[in-house]
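Okay, can you check this protein?
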Amino acid sequence: MNRVKLTIVGDPIDLRVSQCTFCAHRSPDGTRCRAYPKGIPVEILYNLHDHAREFPGDGGLRYQPIVLGHTERVVA
């Protein structure tokens, strides 16, 4: 397996990771999920809204953390 070297440009303290990255409902490409099969709203994707709380159109599906070591993945 080839290794990839990544370089962070700027201040690493500014690095933000979307809450969707660690959600069990996320699609493999990270742009969709079970709550938003047509695309995750920017407010959630960019952490402007904590999706542990209700957001319009989510149908009651909220952020659910991925359980490490659990290989089954929910795909939208």
